[in-house]
Amino acid sequence: MIKPTILRWGNLTPIRKVRRIIIHHPAAVRYSYLQIHNQHRNQGWSGAGYNYYLQKNHEFYELRGLNVGAHAANHNSDSLGVCVEGNYDREQMDETLFLKFVQEVKKLMNQHGLTANDVYRHSDVGQTSCPGRNFPWARFKQLIAQREEVKSIVHEPKQKEVMYVKAEDFQWSSGKEQFEAVINRHGNKNELDAYKAGKLTVSDALGVLSKGILAEPSQTVASTHKDAWEDLTKRGIFNGKNPNHPITRAQQATVIKRIEEGN
């Protein structure tokens, strides 16, 4: 649960569209959200640069929320900076804190329609070790990719394995070249990197295919509709292109007008 805060802010700008989450630590073993806010205010910023902050008391605080943060230079406009208290270059993260962090990040992913491939470390986009060399990144990515709630992953002895589409040894019956063409055109950097590393989950692979289908509907006309499509194309009602694209009301009005004019 996100806990609101009452803080004084400078000018803030709403995020138009959240496209990714960037994970941080403050590099301090003990550092409250209020200390962060005051530090960043003293630096001349509008306030705490993170959007959300999980403290070691397990409270998950809203800082900038859905306003543009100041947490990763040149990567703030479309991202949420989510920070967990601690210095994970020096210490190991407590297990219960780690699982709480996984839960909160998964909630944000679901809220904004993101996948595990849309979640980055600060070090992925900047010259830093953040969120720390000891941050359990591989396990974190595995857990946020799971569809099950973290509670079931933790407490059930038998865990479902994450399925991966591996570039090297995935048992393709057919379609590998077609899939790679789709992911090269429509996959984001994280999806491409994950595929090349053999770490693209099946669910994310299906997401890539969905993006490809929406962007490039099939040009094949089913036999049931083929005669009508060809007839109306010859008559000039349709232009013969993109038979499986959706039609807008404006386009429908043009079609109706052509029919009424006897084309």
TrEMBL record:
<dbReference type="InterPro" id="IPR015510">
    <property type="entry name" value="PGRP"/>
</dbReference>
<feature type="domain" description="N-acetylmuramoyl-L-alanine amidase">
    <location>
        <begin position="9"/>
        <end position="132"/>
    </location>
</feature>
<dbReference type="Pfam" id="PF01510">
    <property type="entry name" value="Amidase_2"/>
</dbReference>
<feature type="domain" description="Peptidoglycan recognition protein family">
    <location>
        <begin position="4"/>
        <end position="126"/>
    </location>
</feature>
<dbReference type="InterPro" id="IPR006619">
    <property type="entry name" value="PGRP_domain_met/bac"/>
</dbReference>
<dbReference type="InterPro" id="IPR002502">
    <property type="entry name" value="Amidase_domain"/>
</dbReference>
<dbReference type="InterPro" id="IPR036505">
    <property type="entry name" value="Amidase/PGRP_sf"/>
</dbReference>
<protein>
    <submittedName>
        <fullName>N-acetylmuramoyl-L-alanine amidase CwlA</fullName>
    </submittedName>
</protein>
<comment type="similarity">
    <text>Belongs to the N-acetylmuramoyl-L-alanine amidase 2 family.</text>
</comment>
